[in-house]
Amino acid sequence: LSRAKINGQLNSGKLALGDFFLRDSAYHLASIWGNHIIGGFNIPFSMTNIKFFQNLQSDKTYFCITRPITHDSGNSSLALFIIDENGHVLEEYGKISFTFKTAIKTLDKPTVQKKIKKYIFSELAEKYMGWAKRQEAFKQKKNVIKHLSTRFDNYPLMSFSTMMLEEYQTERLEKGNKNATVNRYISTIKHMFTKAVDWEMVSEDILRKIRKVKQLAENNRRLRYLTKDECQELINSCEPHLKPIVIVAINTGMRKSEILNLKWDQVDLKHGFILLDKTKNGERREIPINNTLRQTLQSLMRRLDIPFVFHGPATGRPYKEVKTSFGTALRRAKIHDFRFHDLRHTFASHMVMAGVDITTVKELLGHKDLTMTLRYTHLAPSHKVKAVELLDEKLQNKIMTVKKSQVFHESQ
Predict the structure, then answer these.
(1) What is the pLDDT of residues 386-400, one digit of tens each?
(2) Burial code of 338-351, b = ≥16 C-beta within 10 A, e = fewer?
(3) 129-183 per-position pLDDT tens digit
């Protein structure tokens, strides 16, 4: 609350200076602090005493709330909570062994702000680069950090502002970047400054300014998938090393990075599943192995000295990329406007069209929530029709039963 609002409540009689008892706790607290403290006080407010203090020297306003608390022993005592004008709990004391004025004097003592050294962005980028190596998506994030380090190089961290980053958003859009790309840059900057606060490289005031920058609206509606005939045509057009990779993608919906880094110890042919411990969203995922996938994996030559399922024959290392060979296969199959990631859409789309429920599809894809998975629901209109027909059938049976009953009673 602003001081004007507090004074207004005092003048209107909503808040009394000094002691008073709350009779209708939900109403009064909602009008004073919103929902800030209601959830934190599971007590009978009719027994709660509040004192209102305004320290003219420090220009601070406090609400001191006392309430009785009952201990496990059965004994009761008073607890003190000191709330600021925004409804935040500043201090909490289990027993009152001092006066309210003593508590206020304690809070009014000037706090010593720790002086932060003036760092520049390139110093933060270097430190963050070392920290980010532990993240699963470091390979992709590394290039973003490098770009940001070059762009903001010698900028002092304390000079960053909301307007500065909004201008940067505009700059990237004018250079042809899509909204999703710009959002990745901004998200990385926000996390970099979050870590900078943890590392005492910048104040929280700067972080608050940066967090005010809003993400741009993204269009994630692209949903390109192959028909069954196109899938077979693509597989037939693949080079020998690429064919099993594409078959795995179509039959599992796994991400490209998950497939290229797949190890044999993650493949359980006996029980029929692939175990992914490290995924994009950080959650463990089990993917069933169907007959087509089983035959494909069993046909691969497994070298005991190489842990990876898919690897270069000379290096023994996993393939870093299959973009060139995949592009060649697409041209041979005469498939246009298609990316490797669309094989994941192909898997999900055919699952939905086969009648698999959306929750199961979500779990197989490894989505955190249903938001991303719901894009596939429009592919199952026939199943919606069947559902309505099933209802119609049930209702018709009910009506026919009623009619037969009426005819029987009339004949009687």
Answers:
(1) 667 777 777 776 655
(2) bebebbbbbbbbbb
(3) 999 887 767 877 889 999 999 999 999 999 999 999 999 999 999 999 989 899 9
Query: Residue type at 56?
Result: L
* Res. 107: pLDDT tops 60: no
pTM: 0.51
Type of residue at 116: I
Q: Which residue has the tokens 């192909």?
A: 346
Residue 123 pLDDT greater than 90, yes or no: yes
Position 276 scores a pLDDT of 87
> Which pLDDT does position 3 carry in this prediction?
43
